[in-house]
Write a structure and sequence with these properties.
Rossmann fold; disordered N terminus; alpha/beta
């Protein structure tokens, strides 16, 4: 059975490429993707950053945790990677995740944090007592 080469999503591929282009002398050793979704940024980093030793992905949606793992495995097998960093995909909410647990694992490593920020609604921000709520107004003075 021949594996199909997985096409990298363009946004993730371009973001990682831009980071490398803007920081050509950096040797990234640890990657953190705080909302890894299906693993697009992780796979793009695997494809372009050969110095990675550790990768940590965090995802709240359990089916995406498994899809990320599958996508990483699929990419590694299809591309016959000789060196695969240590990879951990954690099922957790980044708003309650204790990032101190990553500190000891990455304290002496050059770390890159990359990815799409999470989408959060106003009601979710209110429920966690966030101070990042936008000011609301009703310029038409409507009641509904």
């Amino acid at each position: 059975m021949k594996l199909q080469l997985r096409k990298l999503p363009k946004l993730a591929e371009k973001c990682v490429g831009l980071i490398i282009q803007e920081n050509p002398n950096k040797t990234y050793e640890h990657l953190i993707e705080p909302t890894c979704g299906k693993g697009n940024f992780i796979v793009a980093a695997l494809a372009q950053i050969k110095s990675l030793r550790n990768i940590t992905g965090i995802e709240i949606y359990q089916p995406y945790v498994w899809e990320t793992k599958f996508n990483i495995l699929s990419y590694c097998l299809a591309n016959n990677l000789k060196h695969v960093p240590e990879i951990e995909i954690i099922h957790s909410n980044i708003f309650s995740f204790d990032f101190r647990q990553l500190k000891s694992a990455s304290e002496n490593l050059v770390t890159l944090v990359i990815g799409n920020p999470p989408w959060v609604t106003n009601s979710e921000l209110g429920s966690i007592s966030s101070e990042n709520l936008p000011r609301k107004s009703n310029f038409k003075k409507n009641r509904k």
